[in-house]
Specification:
Blueprint: H1 8-25, H2 28-39, H3 42-73, H4 77-80, H5 86-101, H6 105-114, H7 121-133
């Protein structure tokens, strides 16, 4: 096999697998003895390694969080230039009519102030279903 034909990635993966298998087959006592021989205090070395792993884990979590925040700041292509459907307008109107018919003024004012603009279609569907279950909407009123 010439140097050009070698797959270094596969070779490295095989070496990594062999090292991990060897480590997993080694009894805990042998590992602790080896660490104590090389570093003097196995407990202190374990704490040092634990601190390193915790720091690496925190950095990875922070990078994930930053990536998620960046993704949230990106405009959504599918909804950026999408006009609401007529069915959604009908659902919003029905929702506002049901709210307006209720005696509870604080709820009516809160939702009316939002005018259902902040609600997703799924939110509106859920509210309409809840209102129907409560008997506030006739089945014939469904959009």
């Amino acid at each position: 096999m010439s140097g050009k034909d070698r797959d270094h990635g596969k070779e490295l993966a095989r070496l990594t697998d062999a090292l991990i298998e060897n480590l997993m087959a080694t009894p805990d006592e042998a590992i602790i003895a080896e660490v104590a021989e090389e570093n003097g205090d196995a407990v202190a070395e374990a704490e040092r390694m634990g601190a390193i792993l915790t720091a690496v884990s925190k950095r990875a979590a922070k990078r994930k969080l930053e990536a998620a925040r960046a993704a949230l700041r990106q405009p959504r292509a599918s909804t950026a230039h999408h006009a609401p459907s007529r069915a959604l307008d009908v659902k919003k109107r029905l929702l506002m009519e049901v709210i307006a018919r209720q005696k509870s003024a604080p709820q009516r004012l809160t939702l009316a102030a939002r005018n259902a603009d902040d609600l997703t279609e799924a939110d509106i569907d859920s509210l309409l279903e809840d209102f129907q279950d409560l008997g506030l909407i006739n089945p014939t009123d469904k959009p």
